[in-house]
Amino acid sequence: MTESHHAVFGHPITHSLSPRIHTRFGHQTGIVIHFEAIDATPETFATALDAFVAGGGTGASVTLPLKELALTLCADASDRARRAGAVNTLVREGDRWLGDNTDGIGLVRDLTGRHGLDLRQRRTLLLGAGGAARGVAPALIDAGIGEMFIVNRSSDRADALVDTLGQPKRVHSRYFEDLPALGEFDLVVNATSAARSGGLPTLPTSLVGARTACVDLSYGEVAIPFLAWARAAGAHHAIDGVGMLVEQAAEAFKLWHGVRPHTDEAYAALRERDVLLVTGD
Q1: What is this structure's pTM?
Q2: Is residue 169 among the annotated active site residues?
Q3: How confident is the model at residue 154 (pLDDT cuts 50, 70, 90)?
Q4: Which of 24, 67, 109, 257 is the catalytic position?
């Protein structure tokens, strides 16, 4: 039986759960998979990707900080990847890469399916404007959220994402110092990498109300500061990124192998091993 060779690229990458998830998907579907984690910086990504192909690689996942760069290495990309301006899934076709982005659909599937959230008309705050934020913003809009406010350390990047989304009456750019005046949100999504690089920005508890769902796209230790703030602020839900990770991985698996695996078993297995739990009902 031929072994399928895949990898996840990012920096840092040793924490990644992707190899474990895809190996489990392979067992479930009867597909033999070799899935590795490859550390690559923006400077070394293209070279590492070439070496991966030379070694038989046929599909790859892409995580921080490479998602926007990955788009530039693709000969073609899906509509959702182009809308996001970022790629998290690479599919090898002949001698070229095709790019897609499954982050957004992964997040929406997790929030609506696993956690039972109705996203329609939710006033939404998106923290961050990098590759992770770009991946989920279009899908949240398509899911029917209300107004979205995007806040980023670099206002230029937030403005650029607002322009990309193309809904100026619905999507707005703000500064972190504006947060106390923005009032309460129904959905707060942390798409920053702040906890990896020195700490979460100070967030006012006035952002959170009795029905607010707070979601961190990260998981494990990196997600702890934001989720702790959410619980202290009284959020109805405090959700990490494990469910999104599993759901987006299933979408990538389907792109590579033509079959979408069931995700509940993989999600439950990760929860059994991870200390950080989802809270809220």
Answers
A1: 0.93
A2: no
A3: confident
A4: 67
